[in-house]
Amino acid sequence: MAPQPIIHDIFESKTGTWQYVVADPVTKAAVIIDPVLDYDRTTQVISTSSADGLLSLIKTNGYTISRVLETHAHADHLTAASYLQNRLTRAQEPVQGYMPSIGIGKRISQVQDLFSQRYGVPSEETQGVFDKLFNDDEEFAIGDLRATALHLPGHTPDHLGYKIGDNVFCGDSLFHVDIGTARCDFPGGSANNLFHSGRRLLSLPDHVKLWTGHDYPPKDRAQPVAWMTVRDHKKHNIHLRDSITEEE
């Protein structure tokens, strides 16, 4: 059996976002996935409370962060990736002396082009935002763990999932089984691509855990849920269970 990571799931309730710290239990190397920068719509104030909570968790557990990973360009919340990169670079300098890289899928350039055209953002302002652009199925290390970047388009064209051991951090490709999948009406989104990305995830072994990017619990389910197995989704996902076709 492949080595398995330690996984910390942290829920940000205002945006319904799951954030993750995923660590190698042997080396204490770790990555952060989809961190949130807090924004109060009423006061229009940005704060770092959620990100500071991640920093506290990392310090308490003695982790060294090698990467901050984004599953995709988020439209529903701000990312704390740059803030965390800055803080971690200073905190880790005595030990490692390097800056954690910010990674995302290589097709982020498509999303940047779409939003540059729509909102009049000069193209030079979107250059150099990310340190690492992952190719499809590219492998990388987290200490002694092996991880793979899976291209899962549909919600956005750049969307990735990160497979680490028997876990996939699948962002907005899949939600809880009673919600189904994410929306696909963002620029470059595609319902057909989202269906095929979901089917790719559900082709994995039944025991694999799929960790979602968001949860919005309905009234009959009080608590947010971070993961369900491939088996759970094949049986119960309202958009992707085995009996549902692409046309539906």
TrEMBL record:
Domain Metallo-beta-lactamase: 16-214
Keywords of this entry: Metal-binding
InterPro entries xref list: Metallo-B-lactamas (IPR001279), Mito_Persulfide_Diox (IPR051682), POD-like_MBL-fold (IPR044528), RibonucZ/Hydroxyglut_hydro (IPR036866)
GO biological process terms, semicolon-separated: glutathione metabolic process; hydrogen sulfide metabolic process
Keyword Transmembrane (UniProt): no
GO molecular function terms listed in the Swiss-Prot or TrEMBL record: metal ion binding; sulfur dioxygenase activity
Keyword Transmembrane assigned: no
UniProt-listed SMART domains: Lactamase_B
Protein name (Swiss-Prot/TrEMBL): Metallo-beta-lactamase superfamily protein
Taxonomic superkingdom: Eukaryota
